[in-house]
């Protein structure tokens, strides 16, 4: 049964902030590297760091134990949490507006909820959960505002939208699979799934964009940040949250990402903030609270 604690809330709020900052870094990195190699570089940096941490802690993993084979779960999580969505988004975001990509990612909680209801123990759909997720989704719509009605003008915009929605579906599948994986050390799981993702992504980047480029020092620094913090660190936190608090709770991160993305854009790039920013934030926070009301009530009682 999932257990949402104060630590769970801190981790999921941290993830929202960390992933929200990734859009800014991606925009900077794309000035010095092509999209697919950017995605693969993130995976490689993350795989190296997580493998080093895992090795320092003993480097042990038992994929088959107590009659349960964990390999199918690890492969699915590796492909659907990182490899597939990274490349789908890298390609799709070339043909759609940022608002379209944002609302696609905000749809992850709504995709996770029915999957978790049918395939995860203790994550049944309730009226309060549904209302909360819908309120949070409305907050994201307010945040993205007029951008939702704009077209990118690309001839492949329709396929770009399909790619972004497919990436959201990948995240939903990987979250539920992570939750259902038999007991396994979180550090071992995070390292193994990232190795699988990096190995799967390497031939895709090579076939699509040729041999890896040699980035300048600025691009290399940004790529290392994306790989070590936004990918490796966040992936470990993500697994810890899902394994303890459940996939539906983890999916609330996706409502925060567009908000933090706009805040970082305003603070660092001087971009204008939308007029409905605080209304959107209120709806997002209200939605998160409503969807997890039963867990919040228990926390308040303990406090």
From TrEMBL:
Residues 10-144, 159-290 form the EamA domain. One of its GO terms (cellular component) is membrane. The keyword Transmembrane applies. SUPFAM superfamilies: Multidrug resistance efflux transporter EmrE (SSF103481). Pfam families: EamA. The keyword Transmembrane helix applies. This is Putative DMT(Drug/metabolite transporter) superfamily permease.
């Amino acid at each position: 049964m999932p257990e949402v604690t104060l630590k769970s809330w801190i981790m999921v709020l941290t993830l929202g902030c960390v992933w929200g900052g990734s859009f800014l870094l991606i925009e900077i990195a794309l000035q010095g590297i092509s999209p697919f190699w950017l995605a693969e570089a993130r995976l490689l940096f993350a795989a190296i760091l997580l493998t080093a941490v895992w090795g320092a802690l003993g480097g042990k993993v038992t994929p088959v134990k107590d009659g349960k084979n964990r390999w199918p779960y690890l492969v699915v999580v590796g492909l659907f949490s990182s490899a597939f969505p990274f490349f789908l988004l890298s390609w799709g975001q070339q043909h759609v507006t940022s608002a379209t990509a944002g609302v696609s990612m905000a749809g992850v909680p709504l995709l996770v909820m029915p999957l978790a209801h049918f395939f995860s123990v203790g994550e049944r759909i309730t009226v309060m959960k549904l209302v909360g997720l819908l309120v949070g989704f409305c907050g994201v719509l307010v945040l993205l505002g007029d951008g939702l009605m704009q077209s990118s003008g690309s001839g492949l915009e329709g396929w770009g939208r399909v790619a972004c929605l497919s990436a959201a579906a990948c995240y939903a599948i990987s979250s539920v699979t992570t939750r259902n994986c038999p007991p396994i050390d979180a550090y071992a799981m995070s390292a193994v799934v990232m190795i699988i993702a990096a190995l799967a992504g390497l031939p895709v980047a090579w076939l699509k964009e040729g041999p890896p480029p040699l980035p300048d020092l600025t691009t290399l620094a940004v790529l290392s940040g994306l790989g070590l913090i936004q990918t490796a660190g966040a992936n470990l936190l993500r697994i810890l949250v899902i394994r303890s608090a459940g996939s539906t709770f983890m999916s609330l991160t996706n409502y925060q990402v567009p908000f933090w993305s706009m805040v970082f854009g305003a603070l660092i790039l001087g971009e204008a903030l939308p007029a409905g920013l605080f209304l959107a934030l209120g709806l997002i926070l209200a939605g998160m609270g409503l969807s997890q009301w039963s867990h919040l009530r228990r926390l308040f009682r303990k406090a």
